Amino acid sequence: MSWQTSLFREFPEAVPQDQFVARSYEALHQQGFRADNAIAFVSVCRDELTMPLVDVIENTWGEVFMFSSLGGMLTLGKTGFLAAHRHAPIEDGRERYVYYALPHIAIDARGEFGVYHRPGRRDASHTCGALVAFQQELESKSLQLAVDPDDLEQSVLKRHLLGKLRYGDVPDLVSLTRIAYTVIFEELERMIRLTVDPTRSDYGLFTGIQIHVPEGRHFVWPGTAYVVVDGKQMTLPKME
């Protein structure tokens, strides 16, 4: 089996990440968003493999405010969101925010999910490593849920994900990545409700799953996307 077969079996709507970002910009541009009057916020995993997507977003929107944590989880809280919003340009009395939030997964040349061969390393490594570590704890029936002050981000990740599982479930990595996507999307919407004043701010939201394949290529499975302008929400077409 090839990576192409695995990609389009599990994520048939996946598109090259450049296309995903370009179409998101086009969709928001029609609603009055531009690189010079908006600021982009990005939540992806800390893994270096996610950085090409950050680079594309930065090349499109200008300098970004990073929300990133292990697994792409949103751990910055209200203080982080409010600080980010204060960095936005103001035009005609309004601020404009663009949120991108995506967990990630890899596929190797044989079509196996979660496996990536990094330059300079003989053995393959896991992607997303934080999700694999959580999966391994589930499999070993030794899940630790106490907050570890030496491992805060992973502690938050585990608590969020566990809330979406039935007792005894051990999802495969693709399923677990989809669960992470749902958690991130829900948390993003919750923090927006807590921190955004729609009477003075407009925003666009783009979610999905970033997918790494051999030869340094990256795709995005597009999830929910919408824009809120003058307090009115409009669903955007998937960035296919």
How would you sum up this structure, described in words?
This protein has one domain: 3-Layer(aba) Sandwich (Beta-carbonic Anhydrase, Chain A), CATH 3.40.1050. Helix content is 36%, strand content 24%. It is built from seven helices and eleven strands. Strand 4 (90-91) and strand 5 (94-101) form a beta hairpin. It is globular, with a radius of gyration of 18 Å. The model has no long low-confidence stretch (mean pLDDT 94).
Concise description?
The protein has 7 helices and 11 strands. The chain has helices spanning 3-10, 17-29, 51-61, 77-85, 129-140, 152-162, 173-195; strands spanning 15-16, 39-43, 64-66, 90-91, 94-101, 104-106, 115-116, 125-126, 201-213, 217-229, 232-235. Helix 4 packs across helix 7.
Keyphrases for this structure?
7 helices; Beta-carbonic Anhydrase, Chain A; single chain; 11 strands; alpha/beta; 240 residues
Main structural class: alpha/beta
What is the number of helical segments per DSSP (H or I, 4+ residues)? Answer: 7
Distance between the termini: 24 Å
Point out poorly predicted stretches.
none
**Helix and strand run:** HEHEHEHEEEEEHHHEEE
Please estimate the helix content: 25-40%
What is the name of the CATH architecture?
Answer: 3-Layer(aba) Sandwich
Number of strands: 11
Largest β sheet strand count, sense and barrel closure? 9 strands, mixed
Q: Output the CATH topology.
A: Beta-carbonic Anhydrase, Chain A
The best one-word shape is: globular
Estimated radius of gyration: 18 Å
Average predicted local confidence, pLDDT: 94
Domain module count = 1
CATH first level: Alpha Beta
Give the percentage of residues in beta strands. Answer: 15-25%
